[in-house]
Amino acid sequence: MIAAPVGFQCAECVAKAESTTSGPLSPMGTAVIKDAYVTKAIIGICVVLFVVEFVAGISSFVYEWGMSPAGVSLQGEWWRLMTSAFLHGSVLHILFNMYVLWVLGPTLESLFGHVRFAVLYLVAALAGGVASYTFGPFNSVSVGASGAIFGLMAALIVTGHHLRRDVTQVIVLLVINAVIGFVVPGIDWRAHLGGAVSGAVVAAVLAYAPKRSRELWQVLGVLAWVGVLVAVLTLRTAQIQQQLPTMRYGLADASAPQSTSSPHLGKTTPV
Beta-carbon neighbour count of residue 39 at 10 Å? Predict the structure, then answer.
């Protein structure tokens, strides 16, 4: 028997308790992290890719890898849905997005942990691409991390409400940026809304999952939401295929003045 604060415990009980101790947990039930590695990694990837864009030529690089409904539907370039979220159209564009990511990312990563935060960010980025693909102009090209950034803002609002914290400042920030997306021409506000909806949904799944079998419910919830996005993609692609003759005619007129390496693409739009 081993002395305990109250009475005595058997050696096997003490060993079992020590082996199951997982250390301090965050308010979301995940292990407390010491550094926001994922946030820093995303910022690093975006900065490195922007340097590559600058060297290779921003316009040509964006046309090859940016979000293009025409490229996705006609040429099967599905990777554009994600690569576009790591590219930017100007120095000011990347500076603004990376600053907001640096402000919001560590807070959410400390709440959800590295893996869940990465899932939250990537699914929001995907949802932004899906929204742009589904509702955006067929011959447009858009780039930027703003869809994912809007997802983080919405996620922080949902999580803060769950934890009964004051999220007024985040709501104001989200509303101001949403209005800017509608007022300033040439901004892909569809990706903003898609990312915000996804961030809210994924954050709700992570925050409100039952404590019993929490990880299972979180995985199932996120997979269900990704399934919805895939279904929307499939339906939109089928719709485009049905309208293909009309799409090709309109695309040829819109892209004729363009002098790029990808004549099927139109105007570049920041996200």
Answer: 25
pTM of the predicted model as reported, rounded to 2 decimal places: 0.82
DSSP H helical ranges for the chain? 11-20, 37-56, 58-65, 69-75, 80-83, 91-135, 146-162, 168-183, 189-208, 214-242, 244-255
Q: Is 88 a catalytic residue?
A: no
CB 142 within 8 A of CB 190: no
Residue 57, C-beta contacts closer than 8 angstroms, at least 6 positions apart: none
Catalytic one among 73, 110, 142, 146?
146
User: In this predicted model, which residue has the larger pLDDT, 224 or 265?
Assistant: 224
Q: Rounded distance, CA 223 to CA 210, Å? A: 16
What's the angle, vertex CA 111, arms to CA 109 and CA 116, rounded to 5? 55
Q: Indicate if 22 belongs to the active site.
A: no
Active-site entry in 192, 198, 262, 264: 192
pLDDT digits (tens, 9 = 90+) for 140-167: 899 999 999 999 999 999 999 999 999 9
CA-derived radius of gyration, the chain: 22
Query: Which H or E run contains 212?
Result: none
User: In 3-state terms, what secondary structure has residue 271?
Assistant: coil
Quote the DSSP letter at residue 31.
B
